[in-house]
What does this fold into?
Amino acid sequence: MYKKIKPYLNRLNFYMGNNPKIADNNNRHQFIPSPYKSVVLISADFELAWASRYTKNAKDPYQKAINNAKRARKNIPKILKCCKDYNIPITWATVGHLFLNKCFAKDSVAHPNILRLNHFENEYWRYDKGDWFDCDPCTNLKESPEWYAPDLIQNILNSDIKHEIGCHTFSHIDCSDKICSDAVFNCEINECKLQAEKFNIELETFVHPGHIIGNLDNLSKMGFTSFRSNNRNILGYPAKHKNGLWEFEQTAEFAYQPQWSIEYHIYRYKKIIDRAIKSKTLCYLWFHPSFNSIVIDEILPSVFTYIQEKKNQIWITTHRKYVNWLQNKKLSPTQ
It folds into this structure.
């Protein structure tokens, strides 16, 4: 019964202004640069097949991972074109393995230099047997394009739009403090940084896989400046942690809900932007490139057009540029 009425409750909560909520802050002027009334950040969880191989919500996790990767590969060129058409920069939170053109197993072990998580189960994934890298084909981009993406990364870098490449760990791990040790986390992130340097990329932005927050002090020590949190949907403000990291809370995900019309999807995202402008808040939108192609074909162009129409009131930017602006204001920690 709840599944049937959930879409209606969702729409009711949106109509009443409860999702996303609008935060209160008497110092809102500190976070929105003049003359703008809102900042809009958009990030993409760029994973291809790496995200779903241990998922609990599919009978065949491996096949779901492959299907997601194939869909993302079809969508990303269209996403980049749409960004170019409407001058929209995106922060691409990228799984580090995607920087690779190829990899090999050594003594039948993939990436023996990367420390492994112990077997675990969380809300989203079940990793209870085998090796963490069992799905790694240990081939190359041509043979296994679902697991490697230097071509797509180069396309992002070659775009006329100044996108940002961020970090999503090397192999899409659970980063929680109780599951991921300092040693495992640092090993994963150091490998990401090493591979990113080959593209002349300095990683500063982090997005935790599966929205599972952890290892924040390690992130700060390794030179990162911000992360996204997904505990709630909110039109709010960035929070500066004592370790120097800026936390950006999500507002809404770009995703296709089959129970809603295309018109309602577009109306909803436009309304969120209007509320951000009116409340002078940060609007944080995000997506998986493996989303239903309807999103890029029929929804995003209208939403991006609307953002451009409001460009005098909205600063649409990347994590790095927004953090640079915040750092220059020398604001004190709020958390």
Q: What stands out?
A: Residues 61-86 form the longest helix (26 residues).
